[in-house]
Specification:
There is one protein chain. Strand 1 and strand 2 form a beta hairpin. Helix 2 packs across helix 7 and helix 4 packs across helix 7. The chain has one domain. The protein is mostly helical. The chain is elongated, with a radius of gyration of 22 Å. It has 7 helices and 3 strands. It binds heme C (HEC). Heme C binds next to helix 3, helix 4 and helix 6.
Length: about 160
């Protein structure tokens, strides 16, 4: 290879033209590792993964975050943990960040934890959950307080001061 060509390639590399995609992909894999860590320490699997809490966290990763048909029943009605893989699979990264920042749900979802996350952490969660693949696994719809759920549920009593 002639010296001129070598100088040309070196100049392109120095400009970041060649190394940029390499950096982007390693950022992506760092995000996935961090996203998994945030899901684990955020306790998201406890509710959004069927059987996770009951098995002491033994559910295989391939089955994480597919939602659950075990309801949470309280004065708010009965809620079911969303299939996060389907949800995140259907929206863009920026839609996810905006949604998580403004999220407010019925109990017992700790929506304030998502509101408090940094944009970088939310992006990491998005990339990790996307990497698991969007799996269809419909969870039952919300049941209003006066209706009896047809699924098993965990009963949440009113706090004593409200009763
Ligand atoms: C104590 C149980 C519990 C934990 C822990 C929990 N969630 Fe939830 N989550 C729920 C329930 C139940 C709903 C449905 C609430 C409703 O129907 O109003 C929900 C809803 C959501 C929604 C809204 C979905 C939609 O369709 O708008 C998002 C996003 C979400 N959870 C993400 C997370 C993440 C990320 C974590 C971990 C940081 C987490 N959740 C931890 C129970 C939980």
């Amino acid at each position: 290879m002639c010296a001129q060509k070598l100088i040309f390639i070196a100049a392109i590399m120095a400009s970041g033209f060649i190394s940029a995609p390499v950096q982007a992909s390693s950022q992506e894999s760092r995000d996935k590792v961090r996203g998994k860590y945030l899901i684990e320490i955020g306790g998201c699997n406890d509710c959004h993964t069927a059987g996770f809490a009951q098995s002491g966290g033994a559910t295989p990763e391939t089955d994480w975050l597919k939602g659950d048909s075990l309801g949470f029943r309280g004065p708010w009605g009965t809620t079911y943990p969303t299939n996060l893989r389907e949800l995140i699979g259907e929206i863009s990264e920026s839609e996810w960040v905006a949604k998580a920042k403004a999220l407010k749900t019925r109990p017992p979802m700790p929506w304030w934890a998502l509101n408090a996350m940094t944009e970088n952490d939310l992006v990491a969660i998005y990339r990790y959950v996307r990497s698991l693949g969007a799996v269809k696994n419909p969870v039952p719809a919300y049941v209003p307080p006066e209706k009896e759920p047809v699924t098993p549920y965990i009963q949440w009593p009113l706090p004593p001061e409200i009763n």
